[in-house]
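Collaboration report, partner site 2.

Our partner group contributed sequences for two proteins of shared interest, and the home lab folded both. The records are reproduced in the order in which they were received, starting with the first partner submission.
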Amino acid sequence: MIENKYTTYSNPLTERYCSKNMSYIFSPQFKFSTWRKLWIALAEGEKQLGINISDEQIEELKAHIDDINFDEAKKIEKEVRHDVMSHVKAYGLQCPKAKGIIHLGATSAYVGDNTDVIQMNEALKLIRIKLVNLIDNLKDFALKYKDVPTLGFTHFQAAQLTTVGKRATLWAQDLIIDLEDLNYRLENMKLRGVKGTTGTQASFMSLFENDTDKIKELDKIVCEKMGYKESYKVSGQTYTRKLDSQVLNVLAGIAQSMHKMTNDIRLLQSLKELEEPFEKNQIGSSAMAYKRNPMRSERIASLSKFIISESISPALVEATQWLERSLDDSANKRLSIPQAFMAADAILDIGINVTDGLVVYENMIKKHIDEELPFMATENILMEAVKRGGDRQELHEVIRELSMKAAYRVKHEGLNNNLIELIIEDKAFKMLNEEEITSILDPMNFVGRAPQQVVEFVEEYLEPAISDYKDCIGIEVDLKV
């Protein structure tokens, strides 16, 4: 077999889709640097509470936070078959004076679980920045097109008119709900803290000679040093795996909203009313040169399905953990959590790109309105005729018959909708002249409060939702493919 960098599987999420920033959060460098920061926080807390640890030892540990000796750790892990102990020993090789106090009193979950929380926390912050930028794009789009009438659709059948901008507020509202969920999760994120092997802190009882106040204080010190308000009040060996499920449910919510939005864009692009950005040299189809496929929206839909499916994994893990812990969570977590985050990062980057360059074809939208509006306008015409003295029941029957005639012409003969011409020509509607009837057909007469709803939505809901993140708005995304 040929052997080179192209003969082993590469993850499309890192190779094609997600940003470098998100990939870094789940990289070995970030992970093991965080382990070392946690070991330093533990040593500093223990020293502060009276354990015999010197400043020199702590300074030695701090000098080697980022220059991780990965090769040594990998070599040791082959011998000891334990990832945490391999890094304890590798860190000790770089810090000979401090090696005896690294990981003092802790269990593997101290670095493993606390780092998992920190990674998810940092990843959620990055997701929030991108989510806010996407919502801001939709705000601008909604305001720009708030007065442009368009056919509404129910069951993908033409329905009462709305506006292009009003439709975009539906997408934005879903994403703001996701932002609210994300903020709640961030505000309530807790570390595992310093809990010991089965969560009883027994090893620290020995270390601190049964001084429970010092043990509780150590937990607080570590949380503060790592930038967190608190840890979970109790744990087994691990923090509750419910947290993983809650976090991925946030990502699944974003994926649902993005999938819905891009479904709409794909349908509208098929109708030629709306189009995602299409670059000068982009190829829509290898066979059909004229095609302009909504490939970015389709990619969002594809990755969104993946995120939604990934959210099931931590739910199953949480449901099946045994007593204080079992290790059937580990391999699953290594896959489901990073990959869900990287996919979520990708769909938001693509979504920012799409919503920043949506093209609206107003003439095509008007053409579709003209084809359907005569049917929708009949009620308004009927009411106006009745106000001029017409008989409601008689006029209703006339309109029904004329509508059936016009519908036959459209569906069976493929001709334009001539219902309004038929009404104008019919003597039953002689109380209205042609100008009065056609004036009723102004599409703006049929959009209700849609334009005002857009303004109210933006001012009362959207702007307040993103106001705290104004400094984050305006990021540039660089799609790899």
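Second partner submission, folded after the first:
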Amino acid sequence: MSSWIVEPGSLHQDLSRFDCIIDVRSPAEFALDHIPGAINCPVLSNEERAQVGTIYKQESPFAAKKIGAALVAKNIAGHLQDNFLDQERDWTPLVYCWRGGERSGAFTHILQRIGWKAHQLRGGYQEFRRQVITDLDQWAAQLQFKVICGMTGSGKTRLLQALKAHAQVLDLEELAAHRGSVLGGLPHQEQPSQKAFETGLWNALRHFDLQKVIYVESESKKVGGLHIPDALMEQIRNSECLEIQAERRVRVDCLMEEYAHFLEDNQALENLLTLLTQRYGKEQISQWQALSQEKKFQILVDELLVRHYDPAYTDSIQRNFPNYTAGKKLVIGSAKPEAYQAIALELLKLN
């Protein structure tokens, strides 16, 4: 095996040894998912890739290769000129494309001929993707979770953030760019693709000591439109639980802060409330939308907790987390950051 070829199975340990990770696929391929930390230096643009594919089908593979080679050479020259001329002789990049074939092979060959220690990923992104799935399945059974439970607004995410400075934390909602409820989409931010979400999970877990506790929030199988991998979800659900308990006034305060963007765009809130029409009927939804229009947000949040979130949470947590009732209870009396810092320190003393 060539010393310039990198095996996907070693990437969870090897990524840090490369000075740069270069994804030479098209921007559209890169946007869907890519190796963590990679930069996009496409040897074919989205349009050029489509053009070469059309020629391949309608004319011949040979004609496509001629056009493709000219475009690839031109684009590699541009990337060298714009991005890499200041690199020293010992610069060590990793290059990959879709299958580890011609696109990354051409780029790697030129970098090596210049004198840089360029490596090519065997099998490209396709093999990396298979490795992500394999690693997530294999790691799941080894993980030791402590699951932070608590009704909506109790500040589970706030507690995870307080724990981050002192312990291993897997923040599923941060990775999914979603707070996990019907109103949970983040303002001006789309969720990643399913593949990118799983790559984010892989990247987070590869940095953890699997022999130590990882704190995670209780979640349903879906966070917004994204699915938590089955093996990981099963391990989380069968782990030790810890419950934050907070009075409703504290929970309303938390939610008013976390969903402050709806105070400025109550039309977006009213649109999302219509998604609950089938469950609660048009009359109830109209009443909630009226509270939004009148900017009576505290009353609206309180009603949503009582009517929607609390019953749904109680049913879900008891059904899906068998260790929930035996978990330690942590009472929090304020939505202020210092209250969660105190709870975090209390939890750490239990380990």
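Feedback sent to the partner group on the second submission included the following. The chain has two domains: 5-132, 142-350. Residues 61-84 form the longest helix (24 residues).
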